[in-house]
Amino acid sequence: MEDIRFTRIREYFLLGLSNREILLALSEFDGIIISNRHLKRLMNRGGLFRRKNHDNIVDVALFVNNELERSGNLHGYRWFHQKLRNSGFMIDKETVRSLLLVLDPEGVAIRRRRRLRRRRYNGIGPNYVWHIDSYDKLKPFGICINGCIDGFSRYVLWVEAHTTSSDPRLIAGYFVTAVNSVGGCPRIVRGDLGTENCAVRDMQFFLRRNGLDRHAADRSFVYGKSTSNQRIEFWWGILRKECADFWIDLFSHLRDNEGLFDGGDLDKALIQFCFLNMIQVRYVISALVFAVEHTSHYSITITPWAIWKAIYDVPFTVNAQDYSNPVPVDELEVCHEECRFKGDIPCCREVFELCCILMQERNLEAPTSPRQGTELYKYLRETIRNAL
């Protein structure tokens, strides 16, 4: 019991939660009730300190330098600090800021530019509105992103990278998976006018057909311009700055500087084969780190995903309530049968099988970094084109 309790305390501590938030999480999620004084004793005994016993700065610098070769070159020091904490490093923000000044001075200079303040969003509670949208900035390279965010808590319900974001049955699959995970559907779903949302709209109408509130049945899905879908557009902006710009620059370099991408089906399939799973992982990591808290008239700070997850799971802590609507199992199964779900093959089967054969012949392994993915892409592209 003691080991389990300390393990949970350490997990919450590394997520950046305060002592008060750790006590709340222990009580609500684990059924463990202890005093603040006892929590401090356990943390001292386990070496969990916020201002001392920091990790070796060389190890931290190596981690930061490795991340800078990926989408980490888009991160500010607050985002990097939270990513380090999530990865198990004990370090203070000032040290991270100083490291970035040395390792990435150009990026620091770029991030010092001010930006316009966006309008505020007013939400009522978790699962009152889910915002669905697709992100098309990588679509020219064959990578299509679809996401959904809870409007009140900013909890990212899903962010999926796939070969298409235009298939209504695929988007419906994301929706049904989220409904099953949450244990109910939202009161309202907000999406744009694209045909990819029609299956989600019909399922939302079906699941909310017997509702008694003013947003029941055909009022439970709201259409609007994608640019006006404020909450998820803000998330896309964060995602582009912290992750997507890296991939856009990488693929644009292959196309514009090296002439190794012509926009054809083969090149798109090879991009999907080499990078799709990698991009999915990086986007999920970004979703875990993401949360934004307005702390003053002019500034925002990055706060741990766990805090927004706690707001989503325990809304009464911020004087809100959960607006999810329970869904019977048989109705969810009906929706499930109308969906299509992502498979294990990241591109068309013919290209996938051919690439696997070529990799086996050269004893090549699946890439784990953008550099390895780029090298594999160039090799496969040259080999296949020479054989045509």
Automatic annotation (TrEMBL):
Molecular function GO terms recorded: nucleic acid binding
Integrase core domain boundaries: 121-282
Gene3D superfamilies reported for this sequence: Ribonuclease H-like superfamily/Ribonuclease H (3.30.420.10)
Signal peptide: none
SUPFAM superfamilies from the UniProt entry: Ribonuclease H-like
PANTHER family in the cross-refs: CLR5 DOMAIN-CONTAINING PROTEIN, EXPRESSED PROTEIN
UniProt protein name: Integrase core domain-containing protein
